[in-house]
Write a structure and sequence with these properties.
- The protein has 260 residues and is of the alpha/beta class.
- The chain has a single domain, classed as 3-Layer(aba) Sandwich (Rossmann fold), CATH 3.40.50.
- The protein is 28% helix and 17% strand.
- The protein has six helices and ten strands; from the N terminus they run βαβαββαβαβββαβαβ.
- It has a seven-stranded parallel β-sheet with strand order 1-10-9-6-2-3-5.
- Helix 1 (12-32) packs across helix 2 and helix 2 runs parallel beside helix 3.
- It is globular.
- The two termini are 21 Å apart.
């Protein structure tokens, strides 16, 4: 695996515009080659800014959003209309505006009785509709180094035989969540970390340090290694893709990069 690429922008607005443009350019290229790209979205303040820029910039790019398949790296297990839902935030920011029709949401607390049922249903949907690889997976990073809903010291960090799992007692509210696991997340051609603000600087530095553990800084578990190294023989794959995983990029603003 090649070393991660680090791209630093002066402020959150510039960062959001750069990521949105990079995403739309990547999608346009993949569609020009006949592809139907699958992407993974994240939540958070900087992700919301990126999504709004995607909506603004989409008319300038030859991207057909009806031919983009959208997933979420994690979701809060709450009511369907809760403002905490990553899917609801993404729909409001850009998905509805650009006409995305192939959006796969994690079942909500209105749909199923437990986060476990939601995780199982989401995994089944991914097996049915996934291609085995995200063209682009976007991830935030928490001040504690978590990614998706994979938190430091949590048992979910060790799961290597499932696509998605329930998370309870999350250190960050709401407490009940569903997250994709490392074997699934690492089946990505491109992993793009998004981080903004000095509150993320220490976690970013730990994630990119030469030494450190995944247990302490879960972002270090994103290796984008080939799928065969991520336990696909045990049935965790999202389809039949190769999971070649050749690119990790950190999109940072200057405050988030301050400790590098």
């Amino acid at each position: 695996m090649s070393a991660p690429r680090i791209e630093v922008h002066p402020d959150p607005a510039t960062l959001a515009t750069a990521v949105a443009g990079a995403l739309l350019s990547r999608l346009a290229d993949l569609q020009a080659d006949g592809g139907v790209p699958q992407i993974g979205l994240t939540g958070g303040t900087i992700a919301d800014a990126v999504h709004r820029e995607v909506a603004r910039l989409t008319p300038s790019f030859d991207v057909d959003w009806t031919r983009v398949v959208v997933w979420f790296g994690d979701e809060r297990f709450v009511a369907a209309d809760s403002p905490d839902r990553n899917a609801g935030q993404a729909r409001a920011a850009f998905l509805d505006a650009v006409g995305a029709t192939r959006v796969h949401e994690v079942p909500s607390a209105d749909d199923v009785a437990s986060a476990e049922e939601a995780a199982d249903a989401y995994a089944a949907t991914m097996r049915e509709h996934g291609t085995g690889e995200f063209a682009v997976l976007m991830l935030g990073i928490g001040p504690d180094g978590h990614v998706a809903s994979l938190f430091p010291g949590h048992p979910a960090l060790e799961v290597d035989d499932r696509i998605a799992v329930a998370v309870h007692d999350s250190p960050k509210p709401p407490p009940d969540r569903v997250t994709l696991t490392f074997p699934c997340l690492n089946r990505s051609a491109a992993v793009w970390f998004l981080a903004s603000g000095d509150g993320k600087a220490e976690a970013v530095a730990r994630a990119l340090a030469a030494d450190g553990s995944v247990a302490a800084t879960p972002a270090r578990g994103m290796t984008a290694e080939p799928a065969q190294a991520a336990g696909t023989s045990t049935g965790t794959g999202t389809g039949t893709g190769t999971g070649t995983g050749t690119e990790i990029t950190w999109f940072l603003d200057a405050p988030a990069a301050a400790h590098l």
